[in-house]
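To whoever is on call:

I kicked off a structure prediction for a single chain this morning and the downstream step that reads the tokens threw a length-mismatch warning. I double-checked the sequence; it's 183 residues and nothing unusual in it as far as I can see. Pasting both halves so you can look.
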Amino acid sequence: MNQLSTSVAPWYHTHECDECRQHNTVLSAAVLKLIAQGAGVRSHYFAGRYENIYLAESQLPLLAIILRHARQQAAMILQRPVAQLRIGHWFNLMQQGDVTLPHTHDDDDELLSGSYYLQVPAPAGELILTAGNERKVIAPRTGLFVFFSPQLQHEVTRHPQTIPRLSIGFNVGLLPTADHDEP
């Protein structure tokens, strides 16, 4: 299977990353500091906030560990060599009362989308994945990856806490120069 199908299970995958989790506190503090300083580029202004915050990887050395792990997991899910895959990422900061409206990531040539949770107070805004008449509610937790089809509609419920919820969103696609033959 080269692409997740929303018509057959599993249409999403979760994965815990202990190696990633051990860096979350330091990485979260660095991300929140950069955001507070106005660093990065913001996009997707919906429901009173920018949903995507793009920060330079060069400012966040620990981010490489999480992105490497995401690519490795994506390669297993997609049954493709890691060397063929590229990953685009952004940060999603939710303050108390924030929501993420229903949307998909099927604008370009993405093969897989996902989230990694850096800082999650309990309870936090929940990820809702919708495939046809099926809905899956996923309670985020620090160190959790969730992978899903870019065609899958997803959203995040209202975040109830005063402590921010911080995640990394990502899309995985093929590198332009990669050999696209089946593995």
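Update from on-call: the warning came from a stale cache, not from the record. Cleared it. Sanity check on the structure: The first helix runs from residue 18 to 21.
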